[in-house]
Amino acid sequence: ITEEDRDNIRAFQLKMVANIPHHAYDRMCHAFQHKMTLDSEWVVVHHLALLSGIEPQNIHCCIKSCIAYMGKYVHDERCPFCNEARYTKHGHPRRTFMYIPLIPRLQALFHNPAIIEQMTYRHNFVPSERIIKDVFDGEWYRQLCSHRVVIDGVEQRHKYFHKQHDIALALSADGYLIF
After folding, report:
1. What tens digit of pLDDT does each residue of 85-111 get?
2. Distance between CA 60 and CA 151 in Å, rounded?
3. Which of 19, 76, 106, 167 is the most exposed place for a label (fewest CB within 10 A)?
4. Cα–Cα distance measured from residue 66 to residue 69, given in angstroms and rounded to the nearest whole number
5. 3-state DSSP call for residue 159?
6. How many CA atoms lie less than 13 Å away from 78 in the CB half-sphere?
């Protein structure tokens, strides 16, 4: 990976973390062209897909973030909640959400020895009896660890999070628009 690749990845990471719109990202690339070459968002995304083996998916969504045009909404031309048009007059989606599939992302974590070591934190964590200093001190996590996994009503032989590299995922979406 070249230094130019690293610059492009850093710029794209800033775009994603700061929620910078497409047009602002393009202007940023243009503004710094005298110092460095920053590729377009499209080029960076496809280069990252090649490097990582993970192909992101652009999903159309309502301009007001009411819905993602998936499932029963996949063929809708207007948002069923706010009635905003899905497409511009030129036929382009007014807003998209970049979805990076979860399973390949989790699998990619196991290709980096440093990340694998960091992921043993949960397994090696020593809970506190008197204070909560981590989610793994919480009552819900402790209860899960003492119960067997149940899939479709069938109790499995193993308990939640009993292996060193089991991953505890949490989703917190209260007040956050996911697209």
Report:
1. 999 999 999 999 888 888 888 888 888
2. 32
3. 19
4. 10
5. strand
6. 5
